[in-house]
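[Discussion] Sanity-checking designs against the backbone

I'm trying to build intuition for which residues belong where. Below is a structure token string of 209 positions. I'd appreciate it if someone posts a full sequence so I can compare it with mine line by line.
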């Protein structure tokens, strides 16, 4: 398994504790990616574990009623942190086969004492056409790709909700293209005490006849 860590780079406290490889910055030119959306991709950069926890805990959700999905999950750090909460499932979506393989290896290695979700996986897929879970879902995005892919993802998500309405929360960190979510017909932006744009979709309440 190739370690995508710069020579001489100090391992984070997180990776030292769990013997994982989630650190560093990996530009796309270092990766072999066969995808029509390659040019829309953004480099891998790990999120701060404390930020991930704050993002989860700031939402008005019961994790056991939700699936956690990281779109553009890279080496899978947010997946490992999310597994500290009792989500139904934790899923990473990554279009780089190399990063997806590292994430899968990290998932196998991770044995955090706080782990409360055992169903953790990373799938190799393009976010532009990935099929969303049918359950209530919390999405996490750390500026994973360009405007075109984000627009396609939102169109697919709206179509999915039209066929099976459910509760959605989306945490968009470093939200360069937040205007696309702001102008959507199905997401509402909500206030949250974190440095991210946060959105939700709640099915309308059907009046009891």
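Best answer:
Here's mine. Compare freely.
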């Amino acid at each position: 398994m190739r370690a995508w860590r710069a020579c001489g780079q100090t391992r984070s406290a997180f990776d030292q504790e769990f013997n994982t490889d989630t650190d560093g910055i990996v530009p796309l030119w270092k990766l072999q990616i066969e995808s029509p959306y390659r040019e829309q991709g953004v480099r891998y950069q790990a999120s701060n574990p404390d930020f991930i926890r704050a993002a989860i805990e700031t939402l008005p959700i019961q994790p056991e009623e939700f699936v956690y999905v990281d779109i553009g999950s890279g080496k899978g750090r947010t997946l490992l942190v999310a597994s500290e909460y009792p989500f139904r499932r934790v899923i990473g979506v990554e279009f780089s086969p190399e990063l997806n393989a590292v994430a899968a290896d990290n998932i196998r290695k991770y044995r955090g004492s706080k782990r409360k979700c055992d169903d953790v996986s990373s799938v190799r897929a393009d976010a532009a056409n990935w099929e969303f879970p049918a359950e209530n879902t919390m999405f996490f995005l750390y500026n994973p790709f360009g405007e075109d892919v984000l627009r396609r993802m939102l169109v697919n998500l709206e179509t999915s909700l039209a066929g099976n309405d459910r509760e959605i929360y989306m945490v968009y960190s470093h939200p360069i293209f937040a205007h696309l979510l702001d102008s959507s017909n199905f997401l509402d932006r909500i206030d949250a005490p974190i440095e991210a744009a946060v959105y939700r979709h709640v099915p309308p309440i059907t009046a009891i006849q």
